[in-house]
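U., I forgot to send this yesterday:
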Amino acid sequence: MAKVERLLIVLAIGLTALLLVTACAPSPSSGEGKVLELGLMAGLTGPASAASQYALKGVEEYIWYYNEKEGIPGVTVKLVWADTGHFLAEGLST
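Result:
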C-alpha cells in the first residue's frame, strides 16, 4: 500500500508542477492578424442546389458570428468555397 500512496503523491506533485508551468506560459499577442481558411465544397448549382445554398449561407453566418462574438484573439476565420455542381470530380479540379 505504501508504494501506491507514494506513486499518488509523486503523480500529484508532477501534475501540480505541470499546471504551474502552463499557467505561467506567456499568452499569445492579439495583434498578430492571422487568417484561418476553412474550405467547403458544395453543389450550389445542379439538381439539389437549394439545400446546398442554405448550408452555405448557414456556414457563412456562423463564421461571421464566430469572428464577431466568439473567436480566437488575433485570428480571423475565412470561408473558401467551391461549387461542385453535384459532380465531385469537377469540383476538385477547380
